[in-house]
Design brief:
Elements (H helix, E strand, L loop, with lengths): L1 E6 L5 H14 L5 E6 L4 H7 L6 E5 L14 H7 L15 H10 L9 E4 L4 E3 L15 E4 L8 H14 L15 E3 L1 H15 L3 H6 L6 H13 L4 E4 L4 E4 L2 H9 L10 E4 L11 H8 L6 H4 L15
Parallel strand pairs: 1-2, 1-4, 2-3, 6-8, 9-10
Antiparallel strand pairs: 4-7, 5-10
Helix pairs in contact: 5-8, 6-8
Length: 313
């Protein structure tokens, strides 16, 4: 059984609205969508996109250890003694980006069985799709492993640090595991948690609290690819999406110059470009007005396609 899972927060609310609209327009299955947001943002999300039979909200605070949050007195200290606050950085918690990574890696606590499709808030679908377009869990488990023509320094760094966290030898960094949606299997996520706890003799969240750099998708992908390597794993060399990754590609997207191929299930307008969703909503709605063939009609699940730039964080 497939379940969609999205960590989000108030800053991505309007992007999340577009994601939900695209799911309502194009998804032909019956999977539930679970969304984890900070406790303080819950009412905002519930008022903007009310929960229903298909959509459930939970708070990310249920999943993330308190050590990832600032101590209650830390914000006051930074205001009163800004020049000395660096001495207390270990009490300042981790960024919201890191919190979302921990939420993703805690998905097994919410969805213990089946298949999970992780949907970031800055994703929107552009053509009809069904559960089977994200893999056939009865016969194969997918791992998207892309080897681009030129790999980015960011992705190389993620692979390097993931191997360090896992305690495995260095190797090639000519690949990455970025995909939207990113299809995960709760049994494998639990195996990753257990692996970290057995290796470090402490809770896996505490292990990652100390990590210099983390990418949830790369850590999970590297663990599956190089440590667990289950026999049912199918490595797919094509992602499901295209990405708008900077101001230039955003300008091309808004003006209609951004090429959208017939094999893309969705598009990601990367949130860290720092532009509001309102700036490109009209273009998305124009795309929704174009009749597109179902995803499986143009992109069979395991057929390799042309290489594209994939630079999602």
């Amino acid at each position: 059984m497939l379940t969609f899972f999205t960590p989000s927060f108030a800053g991505d609310l309007e992007r999340f609205v577009l994601l939900r609209k695209s799911m309502e327009k194009f998804y032909t299955g019956s999977a539930k969508h679970i969304v984890a947001v900070p406790k303080e943002d819950l009412r905002l999300f519930q008022s903007r996109v009310p929960a229903n039979d298909d959509l459930t909200y939970i708070t990310q605070n249920e999943l993330v250890d308190r050590s990832f949050y600032p101590r209650w007195w830390y914000p006051h200290l930074t205001r009163v003694l800004p020049d000395q606050a660096w001495r207390f950085d270990r009490y300042g918690g981790r960024s919201g980006w890191i919190l979302q990574i921990i939420v993703k890696l805690s998905v097994v606590n919410v969805i213990p069985t089946g298949v999970v499709a992780l949907l970031d808030s800055d994703l929107f679908f552009i053509r009809p799709f069904s559960d089977r377009d994200l893999g056939d869990p009865e016969h194969q488990h997918l791992l998207v492993r892309i080897v681009p023509t030129v790999e980015s320094a960011r992705h190389r760094d993620h692979v390097k640090h993931s191997r360090q966290i896992l305690g495995i030898p260095p190797g090639s960094t000519d690949h990455h595991y970025m995909s939207s949606p990113n299809v995960w299997y709760p049994d494998y996520v639990k195996a990753l948690q257990n692996y970290l706890e057995n290796k470090y003799k402490e809770n896996w969240q505490q292990v990652l609290l100390r990590a210099e750099k983390i990418s949830a998708y790369t850590l999970y992908g590297t663990f599956l690819d190089e440590v667990l390597s289950p026999p049912e794993l199918i490595r797919r060399d094509k992602s499901f999406y295209q990405i708008v990754w900077d101001e230039k590609s955003l300008g091309d997207f808004i003006s209609g110059k951004f090429p959208i191929d017939d094999e893309s299930l969705c598009i990601v307008v990367q949130s860290n470009i720092g532009v509001p969703a309102e700036r490109y909503t009209k273009r998305i709605e124009e795309l929704w007005g174009v009749t597109s063939p179902p995803y499986g009609a143009t992109a069979p699940g395991l057929v390799a396609g042309a290489r594209r730039r994939h630079d999602a964080p």
